[in-house]
Amino acid sequence: MQNKQLLDIAKEFGSPVYVYDASKIETQYKRLTSAFKKVKHLKVNYAVKALSNISVLKLMLKLGAGLDTVSIQEVQLGLKAGFKPEQIIFTPNGVSLEEIEIAAKLGVQINIDNLSILEQFGTNHPKTPVCIRINPHVMAGGNTNISVGHIDSKFGISIHQIPHILRIVENTKMNINGIHMHTGSDILDIDVFLYASEILFETAKQFKNLEFIDFGSGFKVPYSTGDIETNIEELGEKLSARFNEFCKSYGKQLTLAFEPGKFLVSESGQFLVKVNAVKQTTSTVFAQIDSGFNHLIRPMLYGSKHEIKNLSNPKGKERFYSIVGYICETDTFANNRRINEINEGDILTFKNAGAYCFSMSSNYNSRYRPAEVLVYKDKAHLIRKRETFEDLITNQIEITL
Question: Is 328 known to be catalytic?
């Protein structure tokens, strides 16, 4: 998307606004499937939590993806978008047995990561196919909040508890059709990922009726020009060879599954904001924008560094600015960042705003959540309206005092 198109979108739909480029999503999907073209059966399940707009889900369906869901609401969104139940895997954490049973009744693939729930579900529904999420005790991820495979993680069943799993399976006669792991997000070292995969292969040998092995995701995407990223092509070459080798020894052609979220949508998204004021203090020049961490929490929560460009003055002299929001507490997007000269009224864009931006947004400070726009075949389509005051109070009930 070029500057002019983005500026036109900001003018037409107002700011702040999330903008997604469908062509970039398609490019990333094809890049992943191409990297694993030597695998006979590949399944890419898009992680809905990254960006759950129903129009984006429909685009994923059109591309040929399945869905990875973590809540019954995401399952329902997937079904509404047109996915068949068998195209959806349900991988919750810490939910009730009742929620898992609702998902099973809808016909989606169940993925369980708790021994107690596994035993209860297997006892009640021994014929329902179940995938088991394993914790490989391999630390991966760019931040402790997104590293989920380490020994203290709440996710998955420890590899040291495999005997317990086998006992439950034997006692309940349940049907285990998949093995799954997820080590964390922003994986850089593919050797660490491959090491964790070997643990998963060893675990898979213990189960005789598998249909697929799910290797999770967490591939790192670049956040600026020249930034490091997961070498998906090298990973594809190495893991495909090892997977095909395993299938031969297993005696059955299995499906290799992934559940990418950020990898597919992060780079497709840009978040457009307007500069309300430029404020000079004794040591800092602040660019104060019409948004806050209620719309883009990742810099405050994860320390993520989104590239910021001045769309209104792309050739202006670079100066140092701290970009801050309008939330009534510390609300910083960037400190002393070199950006083309900023004036009040300028439109800035935050890159890599496709994943975990709108989906983690809120109404903090009673602010409205922005609109979402999908650029599909070079045409901008409004896919979510900007909220209004009526949206803020729609579920509130006023009582007489």
Answer: yes
